[in-house]
Design goal:
The complex is a heterodimer. By secondary structure, chain A is of the alpha/beta class. Chain A contains twelve helices and eight strands. Chain A has a single domain, classed as 2-enoyl-CoA Hydratase, Chain A, domain 1 (Alpha-Beta Complex), CATH 3.90.226. Chain A has helices spanning 3-11, 18-25, 67-72, 80-96, 113-117, 120-132, 148-152, 173-180, 187-193, 198-203, 216-235, 239-251; strands at residues 27-32, 44-51, 54-61, 100-106, 138-146, 159-163, 209-211, 256-257. The longest helix of chain A has 20 residues, at 216-235. By secondary structure, chain B is of the alpha/beta class. Chain B folds into two domains: 34-66; 68-286, 2-enoyl-CoA Hydratase, Chain A, domain 1, CATH 3.90.226. The longest helix of chain B is centred in the middle third of the chain and has 20 residues, at 180-199. The chains are: A alpha/beta, B alpha/beta.
């Protein structure tokens, strides 16, 4: 399938959102609100629950289903307070020694005046730094859109998995077409050139797994077990080993001549 | 040792090499063209380009800070003959076969006479040793691809090993689209290296220059212990045009300027070029651990 069609599928309404994943994968969920500094950001849902019986911290970008929900969730584009809430809960997970599971689905971190005034760049940068050395396991699943820094701020993880109709790009294909070619109609060409669909990313060594999504019920059944198995494997390591491996995972990313 | 190449390609040479130049659809021109006079974006006065360049690339009339070529900036900041450049051999490649990237790289190398948009190494400032980097607007607007990510990461790793503080002059339009998601990963990679340097108890000072935006703002530019800026620098995550499109309104004058960030609490200070060397040396001395 061509890249642009996949990107359109990743944005399709009716697709399970972050909160749907939380509800199907985690039991005993308790949502926690706010960054303790400015506000609560509804574009990020976070809390504590159980994965196959074990306590876990879960953080999900949420777009909403209905127009009313989508407006409330700011269409899944977080403000700095959303990223700060996520970091607060990650630090809490570290304190209580439970793993962190993130679901990514955002067209990008919000590009507005309030976001800039409250330090969008700084909020993302702090997450990148802190997640790299967080002592508990982190696993991130891309369930739809993976828009640039706004997605990466929840994806400095030990493993990154993607649904087959998700994407993970440095810039939206629309943005790329308009900046590079001053022509928003070149969005298909941009989608192909950015190499942002799961198969490309797996080949480039940027993600670990692709999850088939044609059978939704099967996904709801198997995903918790697969996640739980992976967390068990990650927890078998010491935190020093795990952090070293996490850094090494990103350290090898990059292609150049020398 | 800093080398200043005398080679300057003419437009004809560029065109002969298959490189698009200004006027033929190629849009990334140096801000200050090689001409006798320049109009200052700060005060609107027409000034002699040579006067501006002799004045630390600032407007002699209003002090507006023009984009400073990275190597020239490093020469002014570092003690004479102290700069030892690191990782000079790294070259970007068009590994995704992205339309137009190979030509853009070639043109950026000719235009900037640099191999990439960041220059890194070790130096001394008023005798204080440090690792140091600076970014150059003439190389694809300081965008971060694999080579920038790798050079910054290596700089922090080596500085951690040699227990050196790091000083960085940032300038960037963001992550480099032409290397796709791999460019985005450089944000995480550099942030990891900064974090390990920080956890080792070492100092990192950033000097944000005009413009610092996108993926560089959202990674190593904002991760300093001390955040300084040049006056008037544009600093942000999203660019002003993107915000205007999102909000469907004009931005107030000075939004995302260094002065605005200082007021909002995101900068430690604004330091004009003539004072930078003195201020950086002072901060390095204040953090020196006596043996």
């Amino acid at each position: 399938m061509e890249a642009y069609k996949r990107i359109q599928l990743s944005r399709k309404s009716g697709r399970p959102t972050g909160l749907d994943f939380v509800n199907h994968v985690v039991t005993d969920f308790f949502e926690m609100h706010g960054d303790r500094r400015f506000a609560d950001d509804p574009a990020i849902v976070a809390g504590v629950g159980r994965l196959c019986g074990k306590p876990i911290t879960v953080i999900a970008q949420e777009k909403g289903h209905t127009m009313k929900e989508r407006t409330f969730r700011n269409f899944g584009s977080p403000h700095p307070e959303g990223y700060r809430k996520a970091l607060r809960l990650m630090k809490q997970a570290e304190k209580f020694g439970r793993p962190v599971l993130c679901f990514v689905d955002t067209s990008g971190a919000f590009c507005g005046t309030g976001a800039e005034e409250r330090g969008q760049g700084l909020a993302i940068a702090e997450n990148l730094c802190e997640m790299m050395t967080l002592k508990v396991p982190i696993l991130t699943v891309f369930i739809g859109e993976g828009g640039s820094g706004g997605a990466l701020a929840l994806a400095v993880a030990d493993q990154v998995w993607m649904l087959e109709n998700a994407y993970y790009a440095v810039i939206s294909p629309e943005g790329c077409a308009s900046i590079l070619w001053k022509d928003s109609k070149k969005v298909r060409e941009a989608s192909d050139s950015l190499r942002c669909v799961p198969e490309d990313l797996l080949e480039l060594g940027l993600i670990e797994r692709i999850l088939p999504e044609s059978d939704q019920d099967a996904l709801w059944r198997t995903l918790p077990l697969e996640l739980s198995e992976e967390f068990d494997a990650l927890e078998a390591m010491t935190s020093e080993e795990r952090c070293a491996k996490r850094y090494a995972r990103f350290r090898k990313m990059g292609v150049f001549k020398e | 040792m800093l080398k200043s190449a005398n080679f300057k390609p003419s437009r004809n040479q560029l065109e002969n090499m298959g490189v698009a130049t200004a006027g033929s659809g190629f849009t990334e021109q140096p801000q200050v063209p090689d001409q006798l006079c320049t109009k200052c974006p700060g005060c609107g006065k027409t000034i002699f380009t040579s006067d501006m360049r002799a004045n630390l690339w600032m407007c002699p009339s209003c002090g507006y800070h023009f984009k400073y070529p990275a190597r020239k900036h490093l020469l002014k900041i570092c003690d004479e003959n102290s700069f030892e450049e690191w990782d000079t051999g790294l070259r970007s490649t068009d590994f995704l076969h992205f339309p137009g990237y190979a030509v853009k790289l070639k043109s950026a190398r000719l235009n900037s006479r640099e191999n990439e948009s960041v220059i890194s190494g070790k130096a001394a400032i008023e005798g204080e040793p440090c690792a140091i980097f600076a970014m150059d607007s003439r190389f694809m607007m300081g965008s971060m691809g694999s080579v920038v990510g790798e050079k910054i990461t290596r700089l922090f790793e080596r500085a951690t090993e040699e227990r050196l503080p790091v000083i960085g002059f940032t300038l960037s339009g963001g992550a480099r689209m032409q290397e796709g998601t791999t460019s985005l990963m450089q944000m995480a990679k550099t942030s990891g290296a900064v974090k390990y340097h920080s956890d080792a108890g070492l100092l990192y000072i950033t000097v944000l220059t005009n413009p610092t935006t996108g993926g560089v703002t959202a990674s190593f530019a904002m991760e300093g212990d001390i955040l300084l800026s040049e006056p008037g620098a544009l600093i942000g995550f999203a660019g002003p045009r993107v915000i205007e499109q999102t909000m469907r309104q004009k931005l107030p004058k000075g939004f995302q300027s260094a002065e605005f960030l200082l007021e909002k609490g995101f900068l430690d200070g604004i330091v004009p070029r003539p004072e930078q060397r003195k201020v950086l040396a002072q901060l390095l001395r204040l953090h020196r651990k006596e043996a």
